[in-house]
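User: Please work through this fold.
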Amino acid sequence: MKKRKLVHCNGKYHVILPSGWVKAVGIQEGDEVTLEIDDEDFHRLIIKLVKKS
């Protein structure tokens, strides 16, 4: 089983990503992110950092 990390929880939504991926892009546990679906490729999820914890 792969390790996963909770990146953000606002009470309604939880963003959970693979630990290695989180470390590779510099997002840390507790950071606030936005989630977008790519307009040209609906299988691609874009995660943008909003605020560092």
Q: What stands out?
A: Residues 4-51 form a domain with the Pemi-like Protein 1; Chain: D fold (CATH 2.10.260). Helices lie at 19-25. Residues 5 and 46 are 17 Å apart (CA to CA).
